[in-house]
Amino acid sequence: MRICRFSTGEEPRFGVVTGEVDELGQPAEDSVVVALAGDPLYVGIKVLEEQYALSDVRLLAPIIPRSKVVGIGRNYAAHAAEMGGEVPAEPLMFLKPNTTVVGPGDPIQYPPQTSDLHYEGELAVVIGRICRDVPVEQATDVIFGYTIANDVTARDLQKSDGQFTRAKGFDSFCPLGPWIETDLDPQDFVDGRAVQTFLNGDVVQDGTTADMIFDVPALVAHVSSVMTLLPGDVILTGTPEGVGPMQVGDEVEISIAGIGALTNTVSKRN
């Protein structure tokens, strides 16, 4: 099931995207959005009679975390190598504020404090209920679904600051979307799902989730051993190799097989 947040010009609402999808998770042109009553994380899936053509609605970030976005650094060996670092012995965590979250089609704002803004295409895990100290074998019990993220990073600030907060914490630095896919199993990512990033149509990242050092259940267990996770919290699972700079006017598309594609453009922050 593909859970989305959408707008028809009024207040944001939740819905289910229906219709056939291709192997990448992209919906057919005749797909529709069936409206839901309330937030499915809190009231469950309550389908209404209202339906809209997918082409007639604006998709928003499928979730705005009320609490936090937890990033995982260097979770692909090749990316760790390209950044000049070693593979961590346990997941390397950092936080992004929920004000970094934007949705499909929203601009990534290029702030004046940086001159080296990078894309990082990632699989994102959406937590479905309050949990702490989750055993690896019970991770599926607390996962609501999966979406796509761009862990935007001011690389020069990351290097100069020696930590991640400012470099990854600007408004618009966490595009999410286009929806949350609830019908995938963590094993799907162990077996390998393609993660690709396109910069102005050219492939710049071409990886697979099978190359993650720590898989999804291990990440959920590790993060929840440190902090309580709340419904709607998001865990970013790391990025494959191939990260690089974006410029004002660039279009960045990230696709993950079985989920879909997330597209944003870069604009100058005023």
- Quaternary arrangement of the chains shown? single chain
What is the CATH third-level topology name of the largest domain? Fumarylacetoacetate hydrolase, domain 2
Count of folded domains: 2
Superfamily (CATH H level) name of the largest domain: Fumarylacetoacetase-like, C-terminal domain
What is the molecular shape? globular
- Over the alpha carbons, how many angstroms does the gyration radius reach? 17 Å
**What are the low-pLDDT stretches, counting only 5+ consecutive residues below 50?**
none
CATH top level class name of the largest domain: Alpha Beta
Structural class: mainly beta
Your description of this structure?
This protein has helices at about 40-45, 75-80, 155-160, 165-170, 185-190, 215-225, and strands spanning about 1-5, 15-20, 30-35, 45-55, 60, 70-75, 90-95, 100, 110, 115-120, 120-125, 145-150, 155, 175-180, 195-200, 200-210, 235, 245, 250-255, 260-270. It has about 270 residues and is mainly beta. The protein has 2 domains: about 1-60, SH3 type barrels (Roll), CATH 2.30.30; about 70-270, Fumarylacetoacetate hydrolase, domain 2. Strands 1, 2, 3, 4, 5, 6, 7, 8, 11, 12, 14 and 17 form a 12-stranded mixed beta sheet that branches. It is globular.
